[in-house]
Write a structure and sequence with these properties.
mainly alpha, two-stranded parallel sheet, 106 residues, 5 helices, 8% strand
């Protein structure tokens, strides 16, 4: 799905996903945002160090936990919930014209 568009998917290593990302998500749920930020920012930085040009914030807690990023990387952050909401609104508008593959998928 991504390869034809020249995208490559980079994921955290399995142990980093559980020990860092999931721990950050649990910290957000417990209201410990500083702890979450301390866990999630290095995880996002790991992805940029591996060559990611964008990071998809694929869980609703991650944007809350990341807060204002304090590392100096230029990186696109994609809030999946926000992207979904924007697409739903665009699709509901009468003048909406979705591009190619997206129009076929809806």
């Amino acid at each position: 799905l991504l390869a034809p568009h020249s995208y490559e998917l980079l994921l955290p290593a399995a142990h980093r996903q559980e020990e860092v990302v999931m721990a950050g998500i649990r910290a957000v749920k417990a209201g410990r945002l500083r702890e979450a930020r301390a866990l999630l920012q290095p995880a996002a930085a790991d992805l940029t160090a591996a060559g990611a040009r964008a990071v998809i914030l694929g869980c609703t807690e991650i944007p809350l936990g990341l807060g204002e990023l304090d590392w100096r990387q230029e990186i696109l952050l994609v809030d999946a919930t926000e992207a979904l909401a924007e697409t739903c609104i665009k699709c509901s508008l009468p003048e909406s014209r979705l591009p190619g593959a997206l129009a076929e998928a809806v």
